[in-house]
Amino acid sequence: MKTWHYALMVFLGGCSLGILSTFVKLAYAAGYSMSEVTGSQVLVGTIIIWIVSFFIQKKKLHGIQTLKLVLAGIPMGLTGLLYYQSLQTLEASLAIICLFQFIWIGTLIEWIFYKKCPSKGKILSIVILLSGSVLSAGFLGESIESISWQGAIWGILSAFTFSIFILLSGIVGKETPAIQKSALLSTGGLIITFILFPPMFLVDLPTVIGIAPYGLILGIFGVVLPPLLFSIGMPHVGPGLGTILTASELPVAVIMSALVLSEEINMYQWTGVALILIGIVVGNRKF
């Protein structure tokens, strides 16, 4: 597979994450709580990926290897919990900007762990991406007094855990088949989610039936596809360029809000979407 194919995998993984916010909003509007939404997402997604893995040839792993992959999935589960927690006290536009800080955090992690000083082109790309995120999230209309700093802290923490997950998905279990690796990563996310938020909703049949459609969509695009695509592409592009590629999340979130939720998107926001796409191209010119 050519290098740009791996870059495309990571890009599509970011796109799948961008779909989540729209359906989370729909689930909240339907009256479901954060624990019900996140619980159904990780449960359905993990079940799907394990079912698929049973039909794929797997590699025999030692206990330590299995444990490492399960532990590497914990940051993925924490990212969803922290981000959804930030949405409880923060406007969606501001929460997205907080999560979007993984762009520079990922480059910083690569600098620290891989001793790779970011190039001028990568720094330019990050500046463009962050500028685009401010515009596309509609941040210009917000006042400083409306910001919940508690929510902002949760959002920034979700950016750190997402960056850590991107890093780990590229270095842990490199020789493990992607489906098998994704199943173990998803299991780690499921375990930490159910430890922090016990799935009490599972004993209420009407709730289970009602949340199932949301859990199916969120599970596929939030649990199945991202770790699978990142497992394939991230080892080949690295965490620095990988985080830039996953910036595709925010433009997709904006477009989905317009198409599905019929939210009005102004010219500033469309300009921001264009800037983010330009930033991704600038950061990955070699592909």
TrEMBL record:
Domain EamA residues, every copy: 7-136, 150-282
Pfam families in alphabetical order: EamA
Residue ranges crossing the lipid bilayer per the database entry: 39-57, 69-86, 92-114, 123-140, 152-171, 183-202, 208-229, 241-261, 267-284
Keywords, in A-Z order: Cell membrane, Membrane, Transmembrane, Transmembrane helix
GO cellular component terms, semicolon-separated: plasma membrane
Family matches, as InterPro entries: Diverse_Substrate_Transporter, EamA_dom, EmrE-like
Subcellular location: Cell membrane
Primary localisation category: membrane
Recorded topology in the membrane: Multi-pass membrane protein
Stated family: Belongs to the EamA transporter family.
Protein known as: DMT family transporter
Organism: Sutcliffiella horikoshii
Taxonomic lineage of the native organism: Bacteria, Bacillati, Bacillota, Bacilli, Bacillales
